[in-house]
Specification:
heterodimer, A: about 20% strand, B: alpha/beta, Rossmann fold, binds adenosine-5'-triphosphate, binds adenosine-5'-diphosphate, binds iron/sulfur cluster, binds magnesium ion
Chain lengths: ~325, ~325
């Protein structure tokens, strides 16, 4: 086996995912959306990498490409030593077992006609040999208990659970194949805050007990800060800043990260030193027609001519972590 | 002398007929909205925030929903007792509402300028030309760039944030004195969310109108609201000045919500969520309906339903529906 403990669990290199744009009338391809446009990162074993960015920035597409639900236009995805973009169907199936996904809307991702127990066991049908059929019932109950559901509710249907319970069920299903990597795509975003906190604690416990690695996608930065070891910030299909959690929140050097952080609502603003508020103007650019050079330049208050000409690379700047800005600098408070 | 409130809701109850029986979605809720103030109505989903707003606006889904009791007095006029036609006009002219999902509240087949202009044509008898000019002006007012060029675009040609601005423009068209915004930024990205909250706060100040901000997010309103009203299972459980309520929460549910929110700075500690889940309105717990989730619950809580009351040692307008509010404020340790 090529995998060993020190190499990253997942390595993504220069990944591109494009979708064809079709005209409404003739269904002719009229252009392409670059949903993911040259993304590279590593995921270390046992860590949580948070992925943040505005709606449409490409977070879900990146996740879906990593697990093979979308085809990469170019670039590589190496999971546990295996290169997946060129892998055979059998290799892919094996890798899929090790990578599971939890979605935002637990309801639409759960089959309404199957019981909780059947939903959890579904994966064992598709991947025989993980759990022998004679053990399905007991294993399913164990899993339900593991995620804080009452095992005696194994015969209930999804609609008989609350939103938070359905999300727990989605987590139980994801754990059924004992994955190494769990991708949480807005997994707690639709939950009420008290239930969200319960599920966040559950995810932390599962990681500690089972040694899971998480790719945690969320638009709520307080939540991302709470769970992540490292954080990647996406903008218009690209990662613009990537660092340890502390670094991103204390010493962001990319203007977009700084704007994003300054907009996060805090419950008791009066108990904190006044924050510099950066209100961005304008909209996220159309991914079908991104700006030349730096994709953030149409909304960046620091943009200069160079920004339209040269695309800034994601590389360490100011002797700190990687940031994709020609004029990276620390927030005013740190200068 | 205290001025009379702009809106005064007393003992409001709203009932829905459902397959499983009648649910009391709003149960004996009372609150005031003062002239020119911003009131935040907070609580988790299903707590009755939207239904309260629907009752005030007279847009409860019929026939399933009906007002089962209470009064809604706007500027001295009892909206539930007056002639429905006159009340309808009042609700269009003086009380306006903005909803969470701007796309579903805009008509996809009409140009946005026409939809905004409709307000002036229908309510003010404006000419087409005057209505269009007014629409452009409003679009500029709510921060839509190149409004004169975009007035003839359709809703789908705008981003979510821009669509919400258009909804706000429509709501402001008749210069209401009360604007109710139900989760106006919930569907939006944080950067856009901040822009919209800023816009609402600015407009409120410029127009001198009162604003009711309904949200499940305690953070988004902290900067802009004067007072807060917290709802749980159809009840008002705590109310008062927003800083007073957030800093000295007297209801265990409010405390629980605050403790469930991860901090943006400071040490990352394990969260202390409210245990359990909100109750089924068809089978409310006895006594205080929060008792199965409450770390302070006693026998009294399981038997007697607490009323909203002043909290000893706190400002008079800080009120909580909890038997043990004083101990909660004092931060008494959890009983087991
Ligand atoms: N199947 C598809 N066909 C065409 N375009 C698509 C498709 N899926 C995604 N896109 C486009 O790709 C871009 C990235 O979308 P994606 O869903 O990855 O964003 P996201 O960051 O997950 O956003 P959100 O926060 O809203 O979930 C968007 O412009 C989106 O419209
Ligand atoms: N049209 C309806 N028919 C039946 N029940 C409803 C209807 N609208 C709301 N309810 C119920 O009323 C309660 C309060 O709902 P709502 O006011 O929408 O909550 P929120 O605080 O999330 O805005 C919920 O239990 C909800 O299911
Ligand atoms: S490269 Fe230029 S436009 Fe891009 S973020 Fe940096 S300063 Fe702004
Ligand atoms: S009345 Fe009792 S159960 Fe209800 S919130 Fe107060 S302490 Fe808790
Ligand atoms: Mg997504
Ligand atoms: Mg609502």
């Amino acid at each position: 086996m090529s995998a060993n403990g020190s190499e990253p669990l997942l390595s993504v290199r220069d990944l591109h995912t494009t979708f064809p744009l079709r005209s409404a009338l003739l269904r002719r391809v009229t252009g392409h959306v670059q949903a993911v446009a040259g993304v590279s990162f590593d995921l270390r074993r046992g860590e949580t990498l948070g992925l943040v960015g505005e709606s449409g920035s490409g977070k879900s597409t990146l996740a879906r490409t990593v697990i093979g639900l979308e085809r990469a236009a170019s670039g590589t995805v190496t999971f546990d030593g295996r290169e997946l973009t060129s892998a055979s169907p059998a290799e892919l199936r094996a890798a899929r077992r090790d990578v599971q996904m939890i979605f935002q809307d637990p309801y639409s991702s759960l089959n309404p006609r199957r019981t909780a127990g059947q939903i959890v066991a579904e994966a064992w049908e598709i991947h025989p040999g993980v759990v022998p059929r004679s053990r399905w019932r007991d294993e399913a109950r164990d899993l339900l208990a593991r995620v804080g559901l009452d095992p005696s509710h194994a015969d209930r249907y999804p609609h008989q659970f609350s939103g938070g319970q359905r999300q727990r069920l989605g987590i139980a299903r994801a754990l059924a194949l004992r994955p190494k990597l769990v991708i949480c795509d807005e997994a707690v975003s639709a939950l009420d805050v008290s239930i969200q906190a319960q599920v966040l604690n559950l995810l932390a416990d599962l990681q500690a007990d089972l040694g899971l690695t998480y790719l945690f996608i969320a638009h709520d930065l307080s939540v991302v800060r709470h769970v992540s070891d490292r954080v990647a910030v996406m903008y218009a299909g690209r990662v613009v800043e990537l660092a340890e959690q502390e670094e991103i929140f204390r010493r962001p050097t990319h203007p977009y990260t700084q704007a994003l952080l300054s907009a996060v609502p805090v419950p008791r603003p009066w108990s904190q030193p006044p924050r510099e508020r950066i209100l961005l103007t304008g909209d996220v650019p159309s991914p079908a027609d991104p700006p030349s050079g730096c994709r953030f330049r149409t909304r960046c208050w620091k943009a200069r001519d160079e920004c339209a000409e040269v695309e800034p690379a994601l590389e360490p700047r100011l002797g700190l972590h990687p940031s994709a800005c020609h004029f990276a600098e620390l927030p005013a408070a740190h200068r | 002398m205290t001025e009379s409130p702009l809106l005064s809701v007393r003992d409001l109850s709203v009932r829905f007929r459902t397959g499983g029986g009648h649910v009391r979605a709003v149960d004996g809720v009372s609150f005031d909205v003062r002239r020119g103030e911003t009131l935040a109505v907070l609580g988790e989903s299903g707590s009755g925030k939207s239904v309260t707003a629907q009752a005030v606006m007279g847009i409860l889904p019929k026939p399933a929903g009906e007002i089962a009791g209470g009064t809604i007095v706007y500027d001295g006029r009892d909206l539930l007792a007056e002639d429905p036609n006159r009340v309808r006009r009042l609700r269009g002219d003086e009380i306006a509402m903005v909803f969470q999902d701007p796309l579903s509240s805009l008509n996809p087949v009409f140009r946005v300028g026409w939809q905004i202009g409709e307000m002036f044509r229908r309510h003010r008898g404006a000419s087409r030309r005057a209505a269009r000019a007014a629409a452009v002006e409003l679009m500029e007012r709510v921060g839509i760039p190149a409004a004169a060029r975009r007035v003839d675009d359709f809703p789908h040609q705008f981003s979510g944030g821009m669509r919400q601005r258009i909804m706000i423009a429509m709501a402001l068209a008749l210069r209401p004195r009360l604007l109710i915004a139900d989760e106006p930024t919930t569907a939006l990205d944080v950067t856009v969310q901040a822009q919209i909250m800023r816009l609402l706060a600015d407009l409120r100040r410029e127009e001198g109108m009162a604003l009711v901000l309904i949200t499940h997010d305690l953070g988004v309103v902290a900067d802009v609201a004067d007072r807060a009203l917290l709802m749980y299972a159809g009840r008002a459980v705590e109310t008062g000045g927003i800083r007073e309520v957030y800093d000295h929460a007297a209801h265990p549910y409010t405390r629980g919500l605050m403790a469930s929110i991860p901090d943006l700075d400071g040490p990352r500690e394990r969260l202390t969520p409210v245990r359990g889940a909100p109750p089924n309105l068809l089978a409310l717990p006895s006594g205080c309906s929060f008792h199965p989730r409450c770390p302070h619950a006693t026998d009294r809580c399981r038997a007697d339903d607490p009323v909203l009351r002043a909290v000893d040692g706190r400002p008079a307008e800080h009120r909580a529906a909890c038997h043990h509010a004083e101990e909660v404020v004092a931060g008494e340790r959890e009983r087991v």
